[in-house]
């Protein structure tokens, strides 16, 4: 079977569901990734990388393309498919000043591009960001809107159409724990009741413990964004759940959905 992940920037994939992607690739499923932008506006935090050597724009985008390719290799999934939009940057004011930014693109044209890729891949499962974009990034919300629309439109324009749409999710308790652990960071003020979900909203919890090493290598590959391996380990080793399981809520389904919480995203998919 086939799974298609649809995200906005290089690194979204591994932090959202890297273990799940690695698991299904290892089990023999075709796992593909759409990335809307090349992350041209991402900040460089690695101490051994000089930001001026990779100026924001195409040159930084090329760096991040290479990093994403390395992540895909580490996870064992197909090379990324780019939609060729420009990273809007963060905060939102950056994108407002750039008419070419992804956030300013025609949402129906984005949907059309995604539909074209769905038509060539024919995935049973699609994964993308939740309506709040995990932590509110406008590009995350934009790709959510377009992927959600494409999932439903696919039922009218192609057969077979994707059967399930999932969103990676963190529970309210997990967001509260992140607030405590990362107090003072850029995302420590996220409202758990907006950016987290209730426990009973989780429709699937995927055991990724066998793929922890692959997920860690996938994070390491995005070195410009997250720094040295030592720094990454310091951040993540205090979050053991990050390497044990990944949770999902249901964004849409065709043909019904099992009543109980799943431990396999393909459960019941025919």
Key structural traits:
270 residues, alpha/beta, Rossmann fold, 7-stranded mixed β-sheet, 11 helices, 16% strand, globular, GlcNAc_PI_deacetylase-related, LmbE-like_dom_sf, PIG-L family deacetylase, hydrolase activity, acting on carbon-nitrogen (but not peptide) bonds, in linear amides
What does this structure look like?
By secondary structure, this protein is of the alpha/beta class. The protein has helices at residues 12-26, 58-75, 92-96, 107-121, 133-136, 138-157, 172-181, 192-195, 212-221, 223-226, 229-236, and strands at residues 2-7, 30-37, 81-85, 125-128, 164-169, 204-207, 245-253. It is built from 11 helices and 7 strands. Strand 2 (30-37), helix 2 and strand 3 (81-85) form a beta-alpha-beta unit. It is globular and about 50 Å long. 44% of the residues are buried. One of its GO terms (molecular function) is hydrolase activity, acting on carbon-nitrogen (but not peptide) bonds, in linear amides. InterPro entries: GlcNAc_PI_deacetylase-related, LmbE-like_dom_sf.
SSE blueprint:
Layout: E1 2-7, H1 12-26, E2 30-37, H2 58-75, E3 81-85, H3 92-96, H4 107-121, E4 125-128, H5 133-136, H6 138-157, E5 164-169, H7 172-181, H8 192-195, E6 204-207, H9 212-221, H10 223-226, H11 229-236, E7 245-253
Parallel strand pairs: 1-2, 1-4, 2-3, 4-5
Antiparallel strand pairs: 5-7, 6-7
Helix pairs in contact: 1-9, 2-9, 4-6
């Amino acid at each position: 079977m086939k799974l298609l992940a649809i995200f906005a920037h290089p690194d979204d994939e591994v932090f959202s569901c890297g273990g799940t992607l690695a698991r299904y690739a290892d089990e023999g499923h075709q796992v593909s990734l759409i990335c809307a932008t090349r992350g041209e506006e991402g900040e460089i935090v690695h101490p051994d990388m000089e930001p001026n050597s990779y100026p924001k724009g195409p040159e930084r985008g090329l760096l991040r393309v290479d990093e994403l390719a390395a992540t895909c290799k580490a996870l064992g999934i197909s090379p990324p498919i780019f939609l060729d939009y420009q990273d809007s940057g963060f905060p939102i004011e950056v994108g407002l000043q750039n008419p070419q930014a992804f956030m300013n693109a025609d949402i129906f044209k984005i949907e059309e591009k995604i539909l074209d890729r769905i038509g060539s891949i024919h995935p049973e499962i699609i994964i993308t960001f939740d309506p709040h974009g995990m932590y509110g990034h406008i590009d995350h919300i934009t790709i959510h809107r377009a992927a959600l629309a494409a999932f439903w439109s696919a039922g009218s324009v192609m057969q077979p159409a994707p059967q399930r749409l999932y969103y990676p999710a963190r529970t309210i308790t997990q967001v509260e724990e992140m607030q405590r652990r990362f107090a003072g960071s850029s995302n420590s003020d996220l409202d758990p009741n907006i950016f987290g979900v209730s426990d009973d909203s989780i429709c699937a919890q995927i055991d990724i413990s066998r793929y922890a090493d692959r997920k860690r290598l996938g994070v390491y590959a995005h070195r410009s964004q997250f720094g040295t391996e030592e720094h990454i380990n310091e951040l993540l080793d205090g979050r053991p759940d990050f390497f044990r399981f990944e949770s999902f809520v249901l964004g849409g389904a065709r043909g019904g959905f099992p009543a109980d919480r799943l431990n396999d995203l393909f459960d019941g998919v025919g």
